[in-house]
């Protein structure tokens, strides 16, 4: 797990950590049930306070991305794939919204737009 901290960022360090871990979960770099470093070891690796890492982990746990079990450690939540799927759907909806705006502006009928979407969806991924 790679985390890069920038002291020049306007984002607090704990947010930098949590957003990078979320991104790695979302892009499949960190898979469900993968072990995360302990708060102490991550703090040591990043040369920051354990309290900062604790705050990041608490935020990730609150949002459902990670689970902590006393005595076992911290792991990527097995439900994280649901968050990933929701995020991907949200992104697809944004793109579709833009496509609909363009189609309306250009006078492209809904039926034609649906046909094009169906063609793209059914096309084999290489």
Tell me what you see in this structure.
With 126 residues, the chain is mainly α. It is 60% helix and 8% strand. The chain contains 5 helices and 3 strands. The protein has helices spanning 13-26, 39-46, 50-62, 80-106, 110-122; strands spanning 35-36, 66-69, 73-76. The chain has a 3-stranded antiparallel sheet with strand order 1-3-2. β2 (66-69) and β3 (73-76) form a beta hairpin. α1 crosses α3 (50-62) and α2 (39-46) crosses α3 (50-62). The longest helix has 27 residues, at 80-106.
Rg computed from alpha carbons, rounded to a whole number of angstroms: 20 Å
The overall pLDDT average reads 91
Q: What topology, given as strand order, has the largest sheet?
A: 1-3-2
Order of helices and strands: HEHHEEHH
Number of helices: 5
Residues in helices, as a percent range: 55-70%
- Our measurement of the CA-to-CA distance between the termini, rounded to an integer number of angstroms, reads 29 Å
Structural class: mainly alpha
Poorly predicted regions = none
In percent, how much strand structure appears in the residues? 5-15%
Largest sheet: 3 strands, antiparallel
Count every beta strand, where a strand is a DSSP E run of 2 or more residues.
3
Shape: elongated
